[in-house]
Design a protein that fits this description.
This protein is mostly helical and 314 residues long. Helices cover 64% and strands 3% of the residues.
Length: 314
């Protein structure tokens, strides 16, 4: 892209926040990252002292899956990339569970992600690990920036530029506006279940810690590895204009999101695993949901298109 054209595109696409708004954004990011981190430390203490129970681990696993499916299937493949269609009822489930990840409201999430695709690993990419200079120092700086500090930047992606379709949808607008409710529910529901099942205040507290705060911390650390580690380390079977890579360990913990080279080659595909053996739990779940009639019109390139994009023989 010509530099002048890129600069004009960036001006239209990005809002430079005023000092007060930028400060408010940083406070929200700090609370969203810092409070779950404290919960994770408490969870480690409970485990080390033998106070963690089977219920705690179960609540962690259940809400980890809820959060990850909400983000990967709901916010990402459905809202951001329109990879499939579904009913308004199931759409609501996806938008609520995606909001429970505490990764920001729907409009923020979709506009930020689409901006990432438009400027992938170029100036304008909100969280590229490859724009902080050459050498080991630059690589490490970029890796760290793309994982967390980018969320404290004083800029914001324009929703009307990157997500006008989402902005016009009154149903999606409602889920975006009610984000604080679903974020709070994400933390309180594990505590309520802990109390209902465990029957004690301690069980409620542990549910809040394991199913709430610690789960949010670990799930989001895994999710942010998609933008950091998976854009620096891994295999690149497809020719793309960026440095996205297929990182299998990240893919396992993020239900397929770590297959970033596949995703950047075919952004609208409902499945990130281009071959049956690539770990993409969200893609497999969507295939099952299609069989059940819950989702339909799943977008996926055919085998010929995939083969033509490969740099080497399968």
């Amino acid at each position: 892209m010509d530099a002048a054209i890129r600069d004009q595109s960036l001006t239209r696409a990005i809002v430079q926040l005023n000092p007060q708004s930028a400060r408010a954004k940083r406070v929200v990011a700090l609370v969203t990252i810092g409070v779950p981190a404290i919960g994770f430390v408490v969870a480690c203490y409970l485990i080390a002292t033998g106070r963690a129970t089977a219920l705690d681990y179960t609540l962690f696993a259940v809400f980890y899956a809820i959060q990850m499916f909400g983000i990967t299937i709901g916010f990402h493949r459905y809202a951001a990339h329109k990879s499939f269609k579904t009913s308004r009822f199931f759409e609501g489930i996806l938008m609520i569970t995606g909001s429970m990840a505490l990764e920001g409201p729907l409009f923020f999430w979709v506009s930020t992600h689409r901006r990432h695709h438009r400027f992938a690993d170029q100036p304008g990419d909100p969280h590229s690990p490859n724009l902080s200079g050459a050498g080991l120092g630059g690589k490490l700086k970029g890796l760290w920036y793309s994982h967390i500090p980018w969320m404290f930047s004083g800029e914001e992606s324009r929703v009307n530029v990157f997500a006008p379709d989402v902005l016009r949808d009154r149903h999606l607008y409602t889920y975006n506006r009610t984000y604080p409710i679903w974020a709070l529910l994400s933390l309180l529901l594990p505590a309520v279940l802990g109390l209902a099942i465990g029957g004690t205040a301690q069980a409620a507290f542990s549910g809040f810690i394991f199913g709430g705060l610690a789960r949010v911390f670990l799930a989001n650390q895994a999710a942010w590895c998609v933008g950091s580690i998976s854009h620096m380390f891994g295999s690149r079977p497809f020719v793309t204009r960026d440095n996205s890579a297929n990182n299998w360990p990240v893919a396992v913990f993020t239900f397929g999101e770590g297959l970033q080279n596949n995703h950047h080659a075919f952004p609208s595909a409902y499945r990130h695993g281009m071959r049956w053996w690539e770990p993409d739990l969200s893609g497999w779940v969507l295939a099952l949901l299609r069989r059940a009639g819950i989702v339909w019109d799943l977008r996926m390139p055919d085998r010929r298109m995939i083969t033509e994009r490969l740099r080497r023989e399968e």
